[in-house]
Amino acid sequence: MNICALPIAKKTSAASNVGNPKSARAINGMAARAAARTIKQRLVDFAAKRFEVPVYEVRFHANNVDIGEQTLSFEELVQ
Question: What is the pTM of this model?
Answer without folding.
Answer: 0.67
